[in-house]
Amino acid sequence: MKRHNWFGGGSAACLLLATVVVFAALLTPSDGAAVMSVDLGSEWMKIGVVSPGVPMEIALNKESKRKTPTTIAFRNGDRLIGEDAQTLGVRFPANNFGYLVDLLGKTIDNPMVDLYRKRFPYYDIVEDPTRKTVVFRNGDEQYTIEELIAQLLQVAKGYAEESTGQSITECVLVVPGFFGQAERQALVSAARLANLKVLQLINDYTAVGLNYGIFRRKEFNETAQYFVFYDMGAYKTTASVISYQLVKDKATKEILPVVQVLGVGYDRTLGGLEMQVRLRDYLGQQFNKMGKTKTDVFTNPRAMAKLFKEAGRLKNVLSANTEHYAQIEGLLDEQDFRLLVTRDQFEELCKDLFARITAPIDRALSLSGLTLDIVNQVVLFGGNTRVPKVQEILKAHIKQELAKNLNADEAACMGAVYRAADLATGFKVKKFVVKDAVLYPIQVVFGREGESGNTRFVRRTLFGAMNSYPQKKVITFNKHTDDFEFTVDYADLESVLSKDEIANLGSLNLTKVSLTEVAKKLNANKADNVESKGIKAHFVLDDSGLFSLANVELVLEKTVKEDDESTLQKLGNTISKLFSGDSGEDKPTSTEEPSKEDSSKEEQKEDDKKSDEDKSNNGTNAENSTVSGDGEGAKNKTEKPKIVTIKEEIPSRVEVLYLSPLDGPQYEASLSKIKALNDVEESKKRRETALNALESFVIDAQVKLDEEEYSSCATQEEADAIRKHCSEISEWLYEDGSDADAETYEKKLDELRTVANEVYARHWEHKERPEALSALKKMIEGADGFLDKARNFTKEGNPEKDVFTQVEIDTLERVIKETIEWEKVEVQEQKKIARNEPVRLTVKDITDKMALLDREVKYLVNKLKLWRPKVKPTPPPKVEKNTSKEEAEQNTEEVVAEEEQVIEETPNQSKGEATPSSEDGEEIKPSKTEEPSDEDQHTEL
């Protein structure tokens, strides 16, 4: 048989097998819980899972599909998610909420909210009075974006748990790379509402790059290879320049592959949704021109929902066909709609959109400093890259073939689940270092009093555009002697984004930090031998792209003589150095990167420039400089005095400026609302399950009583009782019982089972008994055959092979005879009993007899395995007359040594578990059910 025939010769099956093999090789399970990833797109969500012993895979939803619509609907107290919500949304569009991800972290006045209202005018959107965010109003109920996203994540969690059979609490979430601090924090809050711990927020292009790289590890070397990943999804378009390279880790000395983002360009509003909306509006205009009704189709939400659905179908069909009919039955006022649409007409509608297709690639290349001629490939992913016009424009722009060797829908999700396995504690994966890039520069702004007494604001960039992260930064304030505050903002966005993109980002102010007890700490440490080196603020940009202030500390240098330094002071100085976050270098902006590599050249040039400016302005240390605290310069000049670094924490209060976080009473209220919805849904599921079980049992019981196989096992009274209960329950279900609760249905089912189970039990006994008796007979035959051979292994039968005693042989023989006699009697007695009478010979009785016989045979088999033949000592050879006494003694010793060697080898020769043979050479072979092995694998029936 050829190998490819095992899979039906299908390339897809072979690719799937290869994928599973590669993932299994990359990931080694350890003891731990399952984890998941969620690619929460604007239109679809995909869930990746990995659990101990199972390769990474996509979790299926309840329809056994690999992706689920990110849609949620509410109607008459019911909550629907996914395809059910989409179906309801055509009839009641105002109750069905979709395309929610892009509203995360947005205030009501954001341009993206205005665009959303324009695309979906039938939604009732109001402002959260406290947080100024978007709230959907549905009758008397209101839902925030975080609440709706949290419910989608809960559904994803449920699908993942059903797929793995384990509880899941940790995840990696895929986000658009252009998400700012507000959007990322809002998504983390939604995950928290869904009872999920976010291991990382990973950018979509980074996840795709990781997925692309883990399958091609052997293709990378010390020379960087460059790829462009182009994504056009439902809502947005991004292009990213990514490099792959083998780099030696300075700490572990391992050579590891590194995937690094070098440049990113994006268009937040260019995607399949905008094309679908334009096609929807075109179909609506054409319907109005037909004049089939006086009602404007744009004023009817249900008609607009139907047009939107048909526009989506038509857009997909036109990707493969040059023309197709749009058809909607009963679009408005019971009037049907049918219109032929060509691909040329569709492309004309989106002409201005197609003109924006190449801009993200150009922007990404510009930021990376690379050109297309050194890029290996331009790789497509995202559902809307399948549009022929998109591929045509891209191919003409890059002047090379497009790579389509990625799963456009699942690449990001699979890359994210690999990252989840890497971050979780229960798995070991082959390391693949990931370095992302900062899209929006972040700066610190603080006030400085000039010579004239006026306060001027100083700006220092912490994280520049395209700087790699995660990383840490330290900034030093060495001019402030009293309490002060500073702000953290987005910086120089005009050089990175267009005016419209800046407006879509929302608030440019991130946080305001207020420091207290500065004067108090300084005064407490005033001394002639103590010098202040400023206040250091430590900042972190973690692997989720979230910015935070780690801590603030006052740094002091104390000059002490070597002789005066006490043992306690020496110990304190050592501990201070061990736990210090100071890099110990004089830099304008100190960088502490986990990747242990230097900052980008652009950032270093910028920092050097600022350092020169500060030195020219102040003549001493710059306001933004960090000062070494080890006193090495003084130490080189003279051994005494010695400089000791002292650090004291400065209290700080951080106020978020871009969006009020979902916390406190608001968070608790949202949590209670979601819990109430979950309780209602669980109650509904329990009721439906109980009702279905009751109805199924009633129908099943009635059908079985009409079959001879079951009716023969019931007495007339029992059959009448079952039929009576079934009839009563059926009437009750169609009258008063239609609105009963789950507990009532479960109670009715228990009552019916109590009446019917006796009959079902008898039927089971009669059905299973023949198979059990057949197994007993085979065991008896095997035991009897073993007994015949075992008689040759007694002292009476073969003195040299006395494995068993006569008592053991007699015992086995007696058990076999008793079992045969018992089986014969019980079978005959059972035949005299009618099928509807109590059973005499049960399956349990038969298995008990089998267990007794098995125990006796197993005892003898194990004894045979352990038995070793006795070795008779070989007599010493006769000493010849001409042999000296010494030679005779030496020969005797050699013989004895040879004997000992043979005796020691005997157990080794038996490791193959060869059964000792009888005199005629025939081996003793126990029956299959008692066949010995190195490990006792016998299973008692």
UniProtKB/TrEMBL annotation:
Composition skew (Basic and acidic residues), residue ranges: 584-616, 878-888, 923-941
Subcellular location: Endoplasmic reticulum lumen
GO cellular component terms, semicolon-separated: endoplasmic reticulum chaperone complex; endoplasmic reticulum lumen
Biased composition (Acidic residues): 889-903
GO molecular function per UniProt: ATP binding; ATP-dependent protein folding chaperone
Gene Ontology BP annotations: endoplasmic reticulum unfolded protein response
Segments traversing the membrane: none
Range of residues in the leader sequence: 1-32
Keyword Nucleotide-binding: yes
Keywords: ATP-binding, Chaperone, Endoplasmic reticulum, Nucleotide-binding, Signal
Compositionally skewed regions (Polar residues) per UniProt: 617-628, 907-918
Gene3D superfamilies attached to this UniProt entry: 1.20.1270.10, 3.30.30.30, 3.30.420.40, Actin, Chain A, domain 4, Substrate Binding Domain Of DNAk, Chain A, domain 1
InterPro entries: ATPase_NBD, Heat_shock_70_CS, HSP70_C_sf, HSP70_peptide-bd_sf, Hsp_70_fam
Stretches for region Disordered: 572-640, 870-941
Main location: endoplasmic reticulum
One Pfam match: HSP70
Similarity remark: Belongs to the heat shock protein 70 family.
Protein's name according to its UniProt entry: Hypoxia up-regulated protein 1
Organism: Aedes albopictus (Asian tiger mosquito)
